[in-house]
Fold this sequence. Notes:
The protein is elongated. It is α/β, with parallel strands linked by helices. α2 (40-50) runs parallel beside α3 (66-76) and α3 (66-76) packs parallel to α4 (92-101). It has helices spanning 15-26, 40-50, 66-76, 92-101, 113-124, 132-159, 164-174, 179-186, 190-204, 209-218, 221-224; strands at residues 6-11, 31-37, 54-57, 82-87, 105-108, 225-228, 233-236. It has two domains: 6-129, 3-Layer(aba) Sandwich (Rossmann fold); 137-236, Rossmann fold.
Amino acid sequence: xxxxxxxxIIADDMEPIREYLNMVLGHEPDMKxxxxxxxxxxxxxxxxxxxxxxxxxxxxxxxxxxxxxxxxEVSKKNLDIKCVVxxxxxxxxxxxxxxxxxxxxxxxxxSSAGEILESVRSAAREMSPIRPQVAQMIREEFRVMRAERAxxxxxLNIVYKLTPTELAFLRLLAEGKTQREIAEIRYVAPSxxxxxxxxxxxxxxxxxxxxxxxxxRRLGIFEIFHVDFEEGEVENQ
Length: 237
């Protein structure tokens, strides 16, 4: 890389952006722009044909996630191309989807010309940094994941203590059945349902059974356990 210029493809559906990038990058002696295109499809076709060192891609081109799809295809084909996202979007979903697809860097379009140049050079040297904004997103994602894991473990410990009837009752509530309808389905008296509700609330330490159902649904508990309503058996899938 030290002896030859960085071979680069630019992909952005906005012509003024492409012209700006061509001006900024095209005058650098260590860079050579081998293509400047407006769509993800064009950029992928050109990348397969020319095998550049770096691709500088917008996320939203002919489709909202065209750039991410290009990066994913480059990764799937095991092409030795470093993909840098250059976009206006900085929401968690877009950032994480780009890195998950295989991007090595994520730069906002309001970044300085120097930052954009450095992102290309760092990508070519396989030394792309984790930018402060992205690092903060990653830390927050880990914090949420740890909290969700703790909530799941705690809830599973309670669910394992439920009777098959109590779990079946909660599943019916999650399906939108009322307590009166469940009493009819299970051929039990309303007082029996009220007893189940009291036992469930005590085990979960929640104020309403609706809160329990919301908690189980959010954590995907109903997908983990299967209840045989006829036999009253619970299977852990």
